[in-house]
Amino acid sequence: MIDLNALARSALASPMRTAFLALTAAGAAAIAYDHRVHVIGALPYLVLLACPLMHLFMMRGHGDHAHGDKARGESPRPTLSNHDDHNA
User: Fold this and answer.
1) Angle at CA of residue 17, ends 32 and 3, nearest 5°
2) Is the predicted pLDDT of residue 88 greater than 60, yes or no?
């Protein structure tokens, strides 16, 4: 059962948090409006910078592409060169 009193006292429902989020959003909007010329001028460089950063962070979960882990006794994954021997 949900304790409504505890929910009302939580940080999510506090007026201070709401005021902080509103002021932060207003400040971010003001800064974005004042510096839009700088951001638009840097946009081509930001796009070029995004490519290697996306590659770096998105390929992190792929591992080192090792073919099997000898410590765990796994056999290597089949590759194109392994299939060529069977087709000949």
Assistant:
1) 145
2) no
